[in-house]
Amino acid sequence: MNGSNPIADVVARMQQRLDVLPDELAHRRFFLATYLRTTQAVGRAIERARFEDPEWVEAWDVTFAELYLHAHDGKLVPRPWRLAFDAPESLPPLAHVLLGINAHVNYDLPQALLAVISDDDFEDQHLMDRRRRDHERIDGVLAERVSAEDDELAASGARSLVDRVLSPLNRLASQRFLRESRQKVWHNTEELQRARLDGTYDKRLAELEVLSAAKVADLLRPGQVLLRLAVTGFGVTLPPP
Q1: Which pLDDT score, from 0 to 100, does residue 150 have?
Q2: CA 168, CA 206: separation in Å to the nearest integer?
Q3: pTM for this entry
Q4: Alpha carbon 90 to chain centroid, angstroms
Q5: If pLDDT is split at 50, 70 and 90, which confidence band does 157 have?
Q6: pLDDT tens digit sequence for 204-237
Q7: Cα dihedral 238, 224, 164, 21 sign
């Protein structure tokens, strides 16, 4: 392993899982390949000094990826991931990608942020402003990937006729969903941090798991996933305790 480049290491681990993915899990390839390329894009953005605190973004991105790898490997498979992984193989590739993104962003991302932001950090408003700005800068990196990932699906022949017709809508909607979900993720991170302080973290995380699973279950209902997201939104919001 390349200890001097944690993102390169986690990308290599994703590639290894992609290379050995058995036929019965072939439908996982769509999200895994997309996530691999996205993680590479974040690594390039770090190298190009697009973040205020690149070391923190690197630690956060690797922690985030670890949660997915644990779920993929069956080490810890929370309900949002079980639903996404068990989705019918016959679903369009875009649907598998969106289900994975939904489970990962709504459930895993607040945990990843909290893992790299201490309680003392939350008391430092200047530092938290920097953290939030870097959190929002990820949107720019991901938005740049939307068109490229749409092209990847088109090149593979994996898009349906409906997906091709909706392609411009898909690209615009995906970028809006990214912004919306990240705002909710930040709210949920703050809720979990308050729970960490008052000893109710496990209870609140369980609530987030239920909300995230319900969102994935909703997206599994018949019909166009993106059109349903346009109505119901992408993210989930922890209510007050």
Answers
A1: 61
A2: 37
A3: 0.88
A4: 22
A5: low
A6: 999 999 999 999 998 898 766 666 666 667 789 9
A7: positive
**Tokens standing for residue 136:** 């929002």
- Contact between 5 and 62 (Cβ < 8 Å): no
DSSP secondary structure of 154-222? HHHT---HHHHHTHHHHHHHHHHHHHHHHHHHHHHHHHHHHHHHHT-HHHHHHHHHHHHHHHHHHHTSS
Q: Which residue has the higher pLDDT, 175 or 116?
A: 116
The Cα 12–Cα 97 span in angstroms is 20
Q: What is the 3-state secondary structure (H, E, C) of 77-126?
A: CCHHHHHHHCCCCCCCHHHHHHHHHHHHHHHHHHHHHHHCCCHHHHCCHH
Please give the DSSP secondary-structure letter assigned to residue 25: G
Q: Is 120 exposed, middle or buried (0-12, 13-18, 19+ CB in 10 A)?
A: exposed
Q: Take residue 16 and report the two structure tokens written for it.
A: 């290894």
As a whole number of angstroms, the distance between CA 115 and CA 130 comes to 16
